[in-house]
Specification:
It is a single chain. This protein is mainly α. The chain has a domain of 63 residues. It is 55% helix and 0% strand. The chain is elongated, with a radius of gyration of 27 Å.
Length: 132
């Protein structure tokens, strides 16, 4: 049975349809962009949606974004001294992310030492490979 409030709402919707208020709305005829949130537990979905709408992201994702930015910066850096400092920062961020995750060691991100080791052992480097 329809209550008085529901009757009023239905009547207003019908009047709006007759007046053509629902014609030429933005997105008419396009598919809805539904988010795939199957991986989020059902009781947390509303909280996640509120945080997303407020542009708040979990600390883990914020650190991942910073890692990607730091890696991009590191690739474009010409100065070795600054590159070394940035590499230390990158390793710190990776370590911080790995401690936040509290997962098995097999799933942790490896720290970035390869570039530094190759640089030290490079024959093109000034002097002997171990004078730094």
């Amino acid at each position: 049975m329809i209550t008085g409030f529901e009757k009023i709402v239905e009547e207003r919707i019908r009047q709006s349809q007759e007046n053509g208020d629902f014609e030429n709305l933005p997105g008419t005829g396009e598919p809805l962009l539904l988010e795939d949130n199957r991986h989020i537990p059902e009781d947390l979905r509303l909280a996640y949606k509120i945080l997303k709408n407020a542009d708040c992201i979990p600390p883990e994702l914020a650190i991942k974004k910073e890692i990607v930015c730091t890696e991009t910066l590191l690739e474009q850096m010409p100065d070795d001294q600054l590159k070394y400092k940035t590499l230390k920062k990158l390793n710190y961020l990776i370590m911080k992310l790995n401690t936040l995750r509290k997962s098995a060691i097999a799933f942790e991100l490896p720290q970035k030492y390869e570039e530094r080791v190759v640089d030290r052992l490079s024959l093109n480097h000034k002097g002997t490979p171990f004078d730094k």
